[in-house]
Write a structure and sequence with these properties.
Elements: H1 2-23, H2 28-49, H3 62-85, H4 88-95, H5 97-109, H6 116-133, H7 143-169, H8 174-190, H9 195-205, H10 210-233, H11 236-243, H12 245-257, H13 264-283
Helix pairs in contact: 1-10, 1-12, 2-8, 2-9, 2-10, 3-7, 3-8, 4-6, 4-7, 4-12, 5-7, 5-11, 6-11, 6-12, 6-13, 11-13, 12-13
Length: 285
């Protein structure tokens, strides 16, 4: 399982980096539609390969799945707005608000008990990423901070939808659930589809950036599938903070490939602290 977790973390970190690159090259709507098509296709393949007998879903999951699709659509919108308006390093810091909310919500609504190592590990990941990205010069009106408000809103929504994810995959095949999420969000985008937006999608898929889009979309669905698979195996308050170590990896990748090299020492130090936190979470299960 350890190698699987490492693979999921690196897919998530690389996906974050590619999303930032794409955010300045193609419209939000175009990215969302293409990602949902890729996600639905790959998730369906995984479901077919899983050997599951049929697609029957018990009635108690109908409403949670519908609510989850809506919440994911809202979270995706906020997420892409945040990607456009803030640097990778700052955005990944704001995302860590989920690490505080999710263990609390999991304890309240799922009855999960949080161990000492899990609490310390989660706090170290938060501390490490904050150390890596903190800049005293930022104010509430700074353009980077304004963009991060969208990230914060998305983080709150994802904290809530994570409870639905955890509940649903206990009784629904993760690949089938993933397929429904991607298809559901895709259908919702059709409401806002125009001739110009369709032309933009076709243009992107014929451009040189198409390979980057396909790679980012593939990593996106693999990260999501891996996350849902882990939700079946481990408590939510363990899985989510552990996978958010991908944020620390993304910060280091941004330093290397996107040349976000201001305060490089603090970014590396924060990465190391977050790494210790991830280790403690791993020890906790």
């Amino acid at each position: 399982m350890s190698l699987v977790i490492v693979a999921i973390i690196f897919s998530g970190a690389t996906m974050r980096l590619l999303n930032k690159v794409l955010s300045h090259r193609i419209p939000i709507f175009t990215s969302v539609v293409i990602f949902q098509i890729i996600g639905a296709f790959i998730s369906s393949i995984f479901f077919l390969l899983s050997g599951s007998q049929g697609i029957a879903i018990q009635p108690q999951y109908y409403l949670p799945i519908v609510v989850s699709i809506f919440l994911w659509a809202v979270a995706i919108y906020f997420g892409w707005k945040g990607i456009q308006g803030s640097p990778v390093s700052l955005r990944e810091s704001v995302i860590q608000s989920r690490l505080i909310l999710i263990p609390i919500l999991a304890a309240i609504f799922l009855g999960e008990s949080v161990s000492l190592s899990a609490m310390v590990g989660t706090l170290l990941i938060v501390l490490g990423i904050v150390v890596a990205v903190y800049r005293p010069s930022l104010t509430l009106r700074h353009p980077d901070v304004v963009g991060s408000w969208y990230v914060l809103a998305g983080s709150v929504v994802i904290s809530i939808v994570s409870l639905f994810d955890k509940y649903i995959v206990t009784g629904v095949n993760p690949a089938l659930y993933s397929s429904l999420i991607y298809l559901g969000v895709l259908l919702m985008t059709f409401v806002f589809m125009t001739r110009e937006r369709l032309a933009s999608i076709l243009l992107v898929m014929r451009s040189r950036v198409a390979l980057v889009v396909l790679t980012a979309g593939t990593l996106n669905v693999l990260f999501f599938l891996g996350q849902m698979w882990l939700y079946q195996k481990l408590p939510l308050h363990i899985v989510y903070p552990l996978l958010q170590f991908a944020s620390a990896v993304a910060i280091i990748l941004a330093v290397i490939f996107l040349k976000e090299r201001d305060r490089a020492f603090f970014k590396v130090a924060g990465f190391c602290v977050a790494g210790i936190g991830a280790f403690l979470l791993k020890v906790g299960f």
